[in-house]
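Researcher: Sequence recovery benchmark, item below. Answer with residues only.
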């Protein structure tokens, strides 16, 4: 029986960049043992076990380690691509997978999702990340405590479940925010909620963009006839697929609810503008004839009525007030004053 090494002691950092490569040998019984990176390619895999290699590196850094592990041009292109979307492609008896998770690193936005590129086969799984993936750290911590994945398929299923675990609080927070916005709209305090609504719509759309492809990728791995994926592992993959599907559907619902709230905000805004335009129209209609009368009385020609009367000004004011009152009464009867 081999003695378990300190779990993080085998990490190898190469060059001045961010590249970090770690190799583990898992026995399929929950135990994980670190390997020197330069010995990983030629290591003998025990029966029922598998090799796990993880590289954290930036774009353009050394990729000879991948060639040493047997990767061909297609594997290199899939793992080293700058931009990825969730997918699952069969290749040489194994799979090439891309998974995505919410970015919960300090100072990051959750919707700026982190990618996890995977090349997996019966006795080997190779992963490459650009940024820290907390779901992967969960697997590392469990492996350090003697609870490592028992197979390659089990590791992928656990990763998918951990990614879903990390995504659920973010989706739940979006649900709470849209609930608050719906309550504020119902309570008539919707004016200050437009920026919050815009943020909810943006985040839900960005998360949804990756959830449905991730569901399809996990579903593909589940249904493909791969000998190294057991029925029990297919059940775990099915559970991961269902959880991702539920998250995607919740994001769909959040997006639709946000659209309903947005439409209501636009209706409230349009109604307020209509009321303001109605007031301006009524004021204009009232003062138009009054302005015509005062304009006629102010022209500099002979024969203006009341020019020689001391009480003419007050008589004209009374006439104007009477005409204005009659107009307001008429507008009210016609429903132009906003009567519902």
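Model:
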């Amino acid at each position: 029986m081999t003695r378990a090494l300190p779990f993080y002691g085998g990490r190898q950092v190469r060059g001045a960049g961010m590249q970090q490569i770690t190799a583990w040998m898992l026995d399929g019984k929950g135990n994980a043992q670190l390997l020197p990176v330069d010995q990983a390619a030629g290591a003998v895999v025990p029966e029922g076990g598998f090799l796990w290699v993880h590289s954290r590196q930036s774009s353009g850094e050394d990729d000879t380690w991948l060639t040493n592990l047997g990767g061909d041009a297609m594997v290199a292109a899939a793992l080293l691509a700058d931009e990825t979307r969730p997918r699952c492609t069969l290749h040489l008896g194994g799979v090439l997978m891309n998974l995505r998770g919410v970015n919960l690193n300090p100072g990051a936005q959750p919707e700026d999702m982190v990618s996890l590129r995977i090349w997996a086969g019966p006795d080997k799984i190779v992963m490459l990340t650009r940024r820290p993936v907390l779901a992967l750290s969960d697997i590392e911590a469990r492996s350090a405590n003697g609870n490592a994945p028992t197979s390659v398929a089990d590791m992928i299923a656990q990763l998918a479940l951990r990614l879903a675990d990390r995504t659920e609080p973010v989706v739940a927070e979006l649900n709470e925010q849209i609930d608050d916005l719906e309550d504020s709209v119902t309570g008539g305090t919707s004016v200050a909620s437009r920026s919050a609504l815009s943020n909810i719509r943006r985040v839900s759309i960005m998360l949804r963009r990756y959830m449905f492809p991730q569901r399809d990728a996990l579903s593909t791995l589940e249904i493909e006839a791969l000998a190294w994926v057991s029925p029990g592992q297919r059940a775990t993959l099915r559970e991961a697929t269902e959880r991702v599907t539920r998250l995607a559907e919740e994001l769909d619902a959040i997006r639709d609810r946000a659209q309903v709230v947005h439409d209501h905000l636009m209706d409230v805004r349009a109604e307020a503008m209509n009321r303001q335009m109605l007031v301006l129209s009524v004021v204009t209609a009232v003062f138009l004839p009054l302005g015509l009368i005062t304009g006629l009385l102010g022209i500099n020609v002979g024969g203006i009525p009341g020019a020689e009367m001391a009480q003419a000004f007050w008589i004209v004011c009374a006439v104007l007030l009477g005409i204005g009152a009659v107009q307001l009464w008429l507008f009210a009867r016609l429903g132009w004053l906003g009567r519902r």
